[in-house]
Design a protein that fits this description.
about 200 residues; alpha+beta; 4 helices; 9 strands; about 35% strand; globular
Length: about 200
């Protein structure tokens, strides 16, 4: 037993001193960017695939300050075309990831974990992306994307809302050089019992 104890103590000291020693003259190796952003597009593609293979009643409601409220059933092809605008807002690429900072917040009042990606680079059209996860299941509840850009002397502000497995909404506000504002909202639902 004494021999076993002596061997154990000796081995522990050897391993501990070996782990603490550093070789002189070596430089730290720069790690490549292996940070993983939340796979927003995967969630959206999963919902798009679900709509494409399930016989949901898919409908669109369009409202705006210069148009009458309009609601109509739409085809899966139309659904896919509109939903693709979310996929275009992907910041999970090597060139964009370095421009965004991730923050995580556990909101006990909403039973949610909030993951937010923000940028200070105002030349990028996507200003922020926020994901709400259920804090018990880690399943996505909602995705929010905000964009801001200029085109033809007009300013475009867009807000994208995705309610996982149920619906999405796109709000667009366009301000012209004459300070005229056009607002339009497109709401698409396919599996949302909360919508009457």
């Amino acid at each position: 037993m004494k021999l076993f104890s002596a061997l154990f103590i000796g081995l522990t000291c050897f391993c501990t001193s070996g782990c603490r020693s550093k070789q002189k003259g070596t430089l730290p190796v720069k790690q490549s960017d292996s940070s993983k952003f939340f796979p927003v597009n995967d969630i959206i593609l999963e919902d798009i695939g679900d709509v494409e293979k399930t016989a949901y009643f898919v409908y669109r409601i369009t409202t705006g300050n210069h148009i009458k409220r309009d609601s109509a059933a739409i085809t899966v092809r139309e659904f896919r075309s509109i939903a693709n605008s979310f996929l275009d807002k992907n910041i999970n690429t090597p060139s964009l990831k370095q421009e965004y900072q991730e923050s995580v917040f556990h909101d006990l009042s909403l039973n949610s974990i909030t993951i937010t990606y923000n940028t200070e680079n105002d030349k990028l059209p996507i200003s922020d992306v926020t994901i709400l996860l259920d804090d018990k299941t880690n399943k996505v509840k909602r995705i929010f994307i905000s964009t801001f850009y200029r085109r033809n002397d007009s300013t475009f502000r867009e807000k994208y809302f995705w309610k996982a497995g149920k619906s999405f909404q796109i709000n667009q506000s366009i301000t012209t050089p004459a300070n005229e504002i056009t607002e339009e909202s497109t709401f698409i639902a396919w599996n949302d019992p909360d919508i009457k």
